[in-house]
Protein backbone atom coordinates (compact mmCIF):
# COMPACT_ATOMS: atom_id res chain seq x y z
CA UNK A 1 0.00 0.00 0.00
CA UNK A 2 1.21 3.49 -0.92
CA UNK A 3 0.03 6.44 1.13
CA UNK A 4 0.40 10.20 0.72
CA UNK A 5 0.59 12.23 3.91
CA UNK A 6 0.13 15.99 3.61
CA UNK A 7 1.25 17.95 6.71
CA UNK A 8 -0.90 21.08 7.10
CA UNK A 9 -0.93 22.82 10.45
CA UNK A 10 -3.13 25.81 11.08
CA UNK A 11 -0.69 28.16 12.81
CA UNK A 12 1.20 29.76 9.93
CA UNK A 13 2.56 33.10 11.15
CA UNK A 14 4.10 34.91 8.16
CA UNK A 15 1.22 34.05 5.81
CA UNK A 16 -1.88 33.51 7.98
CA UNK A 17 -3.99 30.48 6.99
CA UNK A 18 -1.46 29.76 4.25
CA UNK A 19 -2.51 26.17 3.64
CA UNK A 20 -6.07 27.12 2.66
CA UNK A 21 -5.49 30.66 1.39
CA UNK A 22 -6.76 31.04 -2.17
CA UNK A 23 -4.03 30.69 -4.78
CA UNK A 24 -5.31 31.46 -8.27
CA UNK A 25 -8.83 30.90 -7.01
CA UNK A 26 -8.28 27.58 -5.22
CA UNK A 27 -7.13 26.71 -1.67
CA UNK A 28 -3.40 26.13 -1.70
CA UNK A 29 -3.68 22.62 -0.27
CA UNK A 30 -5.99 21.59 -3.11
CA UNK A 31 -3.10 21.54 -5.61
CA UNK A 32 -1.26 18.87 -3.62
CA UNK A 33 -4.37 16.78 -3.00
CA UNK A 34 -5.39 16.85 -6.66
CA UNK A 35 -1.89 16.00 -7.91
CA UNK A 36 -1.75 13.05 -5.50
CA UNK A 37 -5.12 11.70 -6.62
CA UNK A 38 -4.40 12.24 -10.32
CA UNK A 39 -1.05 10.44 -10.07
CA UNK A 40 -2.74 7.11 -9.39
CA UNK A 41 0.13 6.27 -7.03
CA UNK A 42 -1.80 6.20 -3.77
CA UNK A 43 -4.25 3.94 -2.01
CA UNK A 44 -4.93 6.74 0.44
CA UNK A 45 -4.29 10.49 0.55
CA UNK A 46 -4.21 11.63 4.18
CA UNK A 47 -3.90 15.11 5.65
CA UNK A 48 -2.26 15.58 9.05
CA UNK A 49 -3.61 18.78 10.59
CA UNK A 50 -4.45 20.29 13.95
CA UNK A 51 -7.03 22.60 12.36
CA UNK A 52 -10.68 21.68 11.77
CA UNK A 53 -11.18 24.21 8.98
CA UNK A 54 -8.18 22.84 7.07
CA UNK A 55 -9.58 19.35 7.65
CA UNK A 56 -12.91 20.28 6.07
CA UNK A 57 -11.27 21.90 3.04
CA UNK A 58 -9.04 18.87 2.58
CA UNK A 59 -12.05 16.55 2.61
CA UNK A 60 -13.83 18.70 0.03
CA UNK A 61 -10.99 18.07 -2.41
CA UNK A 62 -10.88 14.32 -1.83
CA UNK A 63 -8.38 13.75 0.98
CA UNK A 64 -9.00 11.80 4.18
CA UNK A 65 -8.46 13.33 7.62
CA UNK A 66 -8.72 10.34 9.96
CA UNK A 67 -7.17 12.05 12.99
CA UNK A 68 -6.44 15.51 14.37
CA UNK A 69 -2.74 16.05 14.96
CA UNK A 70 -1.68 16.31 18.62
CA UNK A 71 -0.78 19.76 19.90
CA UNK A 72 2.76 18.74 20.87
CA UNK A 73 3.68 18.34 17.18
CA UNK A 74 1.65 21.30 15.90
CA UNK A 75 3.74 24.26 17.01
CA UNK A 76 6.55 26.19 15.30
CA UNK A 77 9.15 23.75 16.58
CA UNK A 78 7.60 20.55 15.24
CA UNK A 79 9.64 19.06 12.42
CA UNK A 80 8.45 17.32 9.28
CA UNK A 81 9.99 14.11 10.59
CA UNK A 82 8.03 14.41 13.85
CA UNK A 83 4.77 14.87 11.95
CA UNK A 84 5.51 12.07 9.51
CA UNK A 85 6.62 9.72 12.28
CA UNK A 86 3.32 10.28 14.07
CA UNK A 87 1.23 9.77 10.91
CA UNK A 88 3.08 6.63 9.82
CA UNK A 89 2.85 5.19 13.35
CA UNK A 90 -0.90 5.85 13.27
CA UNK A 91 -1.18 3.90 9.99
CA UNK A 92 0.80 1.00 11.43
CA UNK A 93 -1.32 0.99 14.61
CA UNK A 94 -4.46 0.81 12.47
CA UNK A 95 -3.09 -2.22 10.67
CA UNK A 96 -2.63 -0.58 7.29
CA UNK A 97 -0.09 -2.56 5.21
CA UNK A 98 1.96 0.52 4.36
CA UNK A 99 5.06 0.03 2.21
CA UNK A 100 5.84 3.36 0.59
CA UNK A 101 4.89 6.78 1.90
CA UNK A 102 5.04 10.19 0.28
CA UNK A 103 5.31 13.31 2.42
CA UNK A 104 3.68 15.89 0.16
CA UNK A 105 3.78 19.51 1.26
CA UNK A 106 0.52 21.46 1.34
CA UNK A 107 2.17 24.54 -0.17
CA UNK A 108 3.37 23.04 -3.45
CA UNK A 109 1.19 24.44 -6.25
CA UNK A 110 3.78 23.47 -8.87
CA UNK A 111 3.80 19.78 -7.97
CA UNK A 112 2.58 17.48 -10.75
CA UNK A 113 1.14 14.00 -10.83
CA UNK A 114 3.88 12.98 -13.29
CA UNK A 115 6.64 14.04 -10.88
CA UNK A 116 5.04 12.09 -8.05
CA UNK A 117 4.89 9.01 -10.28
CA UNK A 118 8.53 9.50 -11.28
CA UNK A 119 9.46 9.65 -7.63
CA UNK A 120 7.73 6.38 -6.81
CA UNK A 121 9.29 4.62 -9.80
CA UNK A 122 12.77 5.78 -8.81
CA UNK A 123 12.20 4.61 -5.23
CA UNK A 124 11.25 1.16 -6.52
CA UNK A 125 13.95 0.96 -9.18
CA UNK A 126 16.92 2.12 -7.13
CA UNK A 127 16.22 0.67 -3.70
CA UNK A 128 16.74 4.12 -2.19
CA UNK A 129 15.25 4.88 1.21
CA UNK A 130 14.06 8.31 0.10
CA UNK A 131 13.42 10.05 -3.22
CA UNK A 132 12.67 13.76 -3.10
CA UNK A 133 12.23 16.68 -5.49
CA UNK A 134 15.23 18.92 -6.14
CA UNK A 135 16.42 21.59 -8.52
CA UNK A 136 19.67 23.33 -9.38
CA UNK A 137 20.94 26.59 -7.94
CA UNK A 138 20.87 29.35 -10.59
CA UNK A 139 24.31 30.65 -9.55
CA UNK A 140 27.47 28.83 -8.40
CA UNK A 141 27.25 28.45 -4.63
CA UNK A 142 31.06 28.48 -4.42
CA UNK A 143 31.00 32.19 -5.31
CA UNK A 144 28.43 33.17 -2.69
CA UNK A 145 29.14 36.30 -0.67
CA UNK A 146 28.23 37.38 2.84
CA UNK A 147 27.76 40.81 4.40
CA UNK A 148 29.00 41.90 7.81
CA UNK A 149 26.84 43.92 10.22
CA UNK A 150 28.34 47.09 8.71
CA UNK A 151 27.77 45.92 5.13
CA UNK A 152 31.30 44.80 4.27
CA UNK A 153 31.56 42.06 1.65
CA UNK A 154 33.45 38.78 1.93
CA UNK A 155 33.23 35.45 0.16
CA UNK A 156 32.18 32.22 1.85
CA UNK A 157 34.90 30.46 -0.17
CA UNK A 158 37.47 33.02 -1.30
CA UNK A 159 39.55 30.43 -3.18
CA UNK A 160 36.91 30.54 -5.92
CA UNK A 161 37.02 34.32 -6.46
CA UNK A 162 38.70 34.01 -9.87
CA UNK A 163 37.11 30.72 -10.93
CA UNK A 164 34.93 30.65 -14.03
CA UNK A 165 31.32 29.63 -13.43
CA UNK A 166 31.57 26.83 -15.97
CA UNK A 167 34.50 25.31 -14.09
CA UNK A 168 32.62 24.95 -10.81
CA UNK A 169 30.60 21.92 -9.78
CA UNK A 170 26.84 22.34 -10.13
CA UNK A 171 24.90 22.36 -6.88
CA UNK A 172 21.30 21.42 -6.11
CA UNK A 173 18.75 22.06 -3.38
CA UNK A 174 15.55 20.55 -2.04
CA UNK A 175 12.57 21.76 -4.08
CA UNK A 176 10.21 21.56 -1.10
CA UNK A 177 7.48 19.54 -2.82
CA UNK A 178 7.59 15.86 -1.87
CA UNK A 179 9.62 13.12 -0.19
CA UNK A 180 8.92 9.51 -1.07
CA UNK A 181 10.25 7.03 1.44
CA UNK A 182 9.90 3.58 2.90
CA UNK A 183 7.93 2.95 6.06
CA UNK A 184 11.15 2.13 7.90
CA UNK A 185 12.90 5.33 6.81
CA UNK A 186 10.11 7.55 8.11
CA UNK A 187 9.62 5.61 11.34
CA UNK A 188 13.34 5.74 12.07
CA UNK A 189 13.47 9.44 11.07
CA UNK A 190 16.45 8.88 8.81
CA UNK A 191 18.14 11.89 7.20
CA UNK A 192 16.78 13.05 3.84
CA UNK A 193 20.06 14.46 2.55
CA UNK A 194 22.25 11.38 2.63
CA UNK A 195 23.66 8.73 0.27
CA UNK A 196 20.59 6.52 0.80
CA UNK A 197 18.49 9.15 -1.04
CA UNK A 198 17.89 9.92 -4.73
CA UNK A 199 16.22 12.92 -6.35
CA UNK A 200 13.70 13.80 -9.03
CA UNK A 201 15.16 16.85 -10.75
CA UNK A 202 12.73 19.66 -11.56
CA UNK A 203 13.20 22.72 -13.76
CA UNK A 204 13.73 25.89 -11.72
CA UNK A 205 10.62 27.48 -13.26
CA UNK A 206 8.49 25.01 -11.30
CA UNK A 207 10.09 25.53 -7.90
CA UNK A 208 9.26 28.28 -5.43
CA UNK A 209 9.45 28.22 -1.65
CA UNK A 210 6.44 30.03 -0.17
CA UNK A 211 7.21 31.38 3.31
CA UNK A 212 6.63 35.14 3.05
CA UNK A 213 4.07 37.43 1.36
CA UNK A 214 6.75 38.29 -1.22
CA UNK A 215 7.23 34.57 -1.95
CA UNK A 216 3.47 34.23 -2.40
CA UNK A 217 3.28 37.10 -4.89
CA UNK A 218 6.22 35.73 -6.87
CA UNK A 219 4.70 32.23 -6.90
CA UNK A 220 1.40 33.53 -8.24
CA UNK A 221 3.19 35.43 -11.02
CA UNK A 222 5.37 32.43 -11.82
CA UNK A 223 2.34 30.12 -11.89
CA UNK A 224 0.69 32.38 -14.45
CA UNK A 225 3.75 32.19 -16.71
CA UNK A 226 4.22 28.44 -16.31
CA UNK A 227 0.57 27.65 -16.97
CA UNK A 228 0.79 29.55 -20.28
CA UNK A 229 3.97 27.80 -21.46
Automatic annotation (TrEMBL):
Keywords: Nucleotidyltransferase, Transferase. GO terms for molecular function: N-acylneuraminate cytidylyltransferase activity. InterPro entries: CMP-NeuNAc_synthase, Cytidylyl_trans, Nucleotide-diphossugar_trans, PseF. Pfam families: CTP_transf_3. CDD domains: CMP-NeuAc_Synthase. This is Pseudaminic acid cytidylyltransferase. It comes from Vibrio inusitatus NBRC 102082. The lineage of its organism: Bacteria, Pseudomonadati, Pseudomonadota, Gammaproteobacteria, Vibrionales.
Amino acid sequence: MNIAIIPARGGSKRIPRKNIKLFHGKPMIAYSIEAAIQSGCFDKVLVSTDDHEIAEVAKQFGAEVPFIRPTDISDDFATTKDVMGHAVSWCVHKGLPVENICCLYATAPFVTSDDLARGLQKLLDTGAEYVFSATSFPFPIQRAIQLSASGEVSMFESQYELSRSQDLQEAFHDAGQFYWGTQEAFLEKKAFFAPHSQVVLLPRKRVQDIDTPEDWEFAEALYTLVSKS
